Amino acid sequence: MAEPAGRRDPRAEPLVAAVRRFVAETLPSLRSDRIGLDSRFEADLGLDSLARVELLKRIEAALDLTLPEEALLAETVGDLLRLTPSARGSAPLEAVAAPPGLSLAEAGEPADAATLIDALRWHQQSHPDRVHLLLYGEGEEPSPITYTELWDGAQSLAGGLVSQGLAPGETVALMLPTGLDYFRGFFGVLLAGGVPVPIYPPTRPSQLEEHLRRHARILENAGTAYLITIEAAKGVAQLLKAQVPGLRQVLTAADLQGAQGAELPPAARADDLAFLQYTSGSTGDPKGVSLAHRHLLANVRAMGEAVGVRPDDVFVSWLPLYHDMGLIGAWLGSLYFGIPLVVMSPLSFLAQPVRWLRAIHRHRGTLSAAPNFAYELCLTKISDAALAGLDLSSWRWAFNGAEPVSPTTLERFAERFAAYGLRPGALAPVYGLAEAAVGLAFPPPGRGPLIERVHREVFGREGRAEPAGEGEGDGLRFVACGRPLPGYAVRVVDEGGRELPERREGRLRFVGPSATSGYYRNPEATRRLFQDGWLDTGDRGYLAGGDIYVTGRVKDLIIRGGRNFYPYDLEEAVGALAGVRKGCVVVFGTCDRATGSERLVVVAETRQREAERLEDLRRLVRERAVAVLGLPPDEVVLVPPHAVLKTSSGKLRRGAVRELYEQGILGQGSPALWRQVLAVLWQGIGTRSWHWLATSGERLFAAYAWGLFALLAGVTWTGVVLLPRPAWRWGLVRAAIRAVRAGTGTHLEVEGREQLPPLEQPFLLVSNHASYLDSMALIEAVPRTLGYVAKRELEGPFYSRWFLQRLDTLFVERFDVKRSAEEAAQLASAAASGRSLAFFPEGTFRGAPGLLAFRMGAFLTAAEAGVPVVPVALSGTRGILGGDTRRVRRGSIRVVIGAPLWPEGRDWQAAVRLRDAARERILRHCGEPDLLGGTSTRGE
């Protein structure tokens, strides 16, 4: 941590500036303005040994000094400062302080934090007794929770998880209500090296079976090993074990207390997975948004910059902690900026919405957020008498997001609560999505709602948002949801991916530093998410005057009679009818199998039971549809309360309601609780039986594949060690690889062999690294004798050393910085002498998919030797033998060989350009997400 402000070292500011310039040039996707004395060269800045050698050269030239040899071993910028002489030839100082503008203690935020753990640790060390949470529970008074209490509780729980056998990278589900156990549990999982998966606890017994079915699909997709819940829900949670074979333990926070002496794993890194956010409407295809620590911190920092967070801010929240707005926007944002979070449970708010407003009044809340339905509840469920004495004048940001924002709700809320001190400019419609962490667009501070009225007919038929005057007939109203956060870009495209001009509706896509790397263990959904480097939001909208106007979800769009329209206007209008439950109306389109056309269906909840009253209500719904849309619905379905399904965050599940309608079971009610439990148990027995049969086949195949490999490996090892000619050795290796591939039925597809340079031309091959099979795939796919560059650890055991040395493998050091720099010169010499070399520039691979950062060794070698780089993209090897398993699976491999990339010079900049070009080619064809998030600089 940076030292407190005291005596300032004049060398610090120019040194940090030099590091920032170098990082901006070498790794432009990183926020170089965040670099300070605590920044770690390897973990935070991604500078490998060769990059550090170049950095030291730049510093010496820029500051006109000579650094000592041990400067190469500095781990942080502060370490380097302590070794930096104040003038050429003078001795370094023993102690330094932070330069102006870099004192974290003065800034009030952990600006150098690379992970959420870093952020919490920074606050715990800087002000351990400061209150972080004011937690409302059963009583009227909140319980204060300090940073130290949260840190100590999380460490205790982490020790319990490690003692239970949690391995680094395993997922842990949190099925906990809002409370201290949730906050401790989230960070406890992170400190134990796990990945939290927030899910919501069951609420209604009538929907227990459906609740467990949905969660079982999520936990199976996440590969969940442990589930933490409350004692009261433990019995229900045990039912999930029957449906999720990988779920080893169902525990409570109390079960994890008291473990002493458990050794916690090494600290997390910025690129490590921080948690999985499953989309709230997950059905048969669960989509867990993968969010690394750097994604979350980037989004929190961008939102804080847009809001202008102040030291005296107070956030008040009732939002669920299993939803991104509550977890990231409210809690993690408050934690990062060190402002108090006043928090109550969602059930407390739903029971008495006035509690939310009273908490803002009592604690002088300045920031708070909620979906549109919460503002509507405050309008309809709070009496004037309950508001006596209320003062909302402190509220400067009233965020409205997470679901379609109603212009009517905004206007009514502003009008009613102006009498209680609410400023008109406080209401702030915002836009975000889990794939961006949470926030994507915020309005300017204090502007208030901006509402447009456009021609309904023109918009429905042509997709043009043509402004309509007040006297120009019935118009559509859309709310401006703000402008892209700093560092983000949004564009609108048509169905062919072509960018559209202002005021033309299309699909919304974005790029930014918090854009997810993809959906966890769901490569098909990940492929659909990315389009030409941009992420598809699944929303439609248009841009006007710099603002984003969200018009609806792509999946909710209804096309009828040559017109496009969304269900929201009609749902709101029908919900306002007497006898219809407001907020419990769903409008959707469904295919008429007889005619092939789309039918318009309105489903509305009502408490009415008399046939005559129900028929009157259907007539009123039809009349309201004609008034709003200009056409009647094909069918009006009136159902009892709670038949319209909603997500955990209160959003309408239109797709699920449509499925029930199409199955003919909508509104039939739920079976008895005991029948639901039996159904879940029976399904669990079937699931486990099927899983056992399926995995038995997989285990048999894996055993056969390993047996075949072991048989051929022994023969191949002996032949390589004994055969006198290199060509014979390589011929034997390729024959063995082909035999293994043929014996396991693995298909190999190679594209681009014609791109390889002529035989007499040496080159450097670089490839992504996803599996232990990668070298085998390259050896067969690329019919050249290459010198493979391998980590020096393989030179230790005699069996790998003898084998690899006979194949002319070059070994390089990964951890010894000095030796690694020396070996780089040897590689350049080998390439210059005419040897073709093969590199995996990521240096390693992990179990989770994604392209890591590329180290500079291969590209410096190519630049200095003046030889081309051939980028090769591998796909399919991870699925056959992943980095986190030894089980071999059936599959196919694809190898795409790219055109040679020639260096444009012999300096560092030339090597950086080579690296970026090669990585871009490989990323295009490897089928995996970009873990660098380099798209954050595009579109700026």
Topology summary:
Layout (H helix, E strand, L loop, with lengths): L11 H15 L22 H15 L13 H6 L21 H4 L8 H11 L4 E5 L7 E4 H18 L6 E5 L4 H12 L3 E4 L9 H15 L1 E6 L4 H10 L5 E3 L21 E6 L9 E5 H15 L7 E3 L6 H14 L3 E3 L2 H6 L2 H10 L3 E4 L1 H10 L15 E4 L6 H11 L9 E3 L1 E2 L6 E4 L8 E5 H7 L12 E5 L3 E2 L4 E5 L12 E6 L11 H7 E2 L2 E11 L2 E7 L4 E3 L2 E3 L2 H8 L4 E12 L6 E9 L4 H19 L5 E5 L14 H10 L9 H50 L3 H19 L2 E5 L12 E4 L6 H8 L5 E5 L6 H9 L3 E3 L4 H16 L4 E3 L17 H9 L3 E7 L1 H4 L11 E6 L10 H19 L14
Parallel strand pairs: 1-10, 3-4, 3-5, 5-6, 9-10, 9-11, 11-12, 12-13, 27-28, 29-35, 30-33, 30-34, 31-32, 31-33
Antiparallel strand pairs: 1-2, 7-8, 14-15, 15-18, 16-17, 19-20, 20-22, 21-22, 22-23, 24-25, 26-27, 34-35
Helix pairs in contact: 1-2, 6-7, 8-9, 8-21, 9-21, 10-11, 14-15, 18-19, 21-22, 22-23, 25-26, 26-28
User: What class do helices, strands and sheet pairing give?
Assistant: alpha/beta
Low-confidence stretches: 1-7, 87-107, 934-940
Indicate the percent of residues in helices.
25-40%
CATH class category name of the largest domain: Alpha Beta
| Helix segment tally | 28
Shape: globular
**Overall number of structural domains:** 5
Question: What's the main sheet like?
Answer: 7 strands, mixed
- Terminal CA distance reads 32 Å
The CATH topology of the largest domain turns out to be: Rossmann fold
Q: From the 3D coordinates, which CATH architecture of the largest domain would you assign?
A: 3-Layer(aba) Sandwich
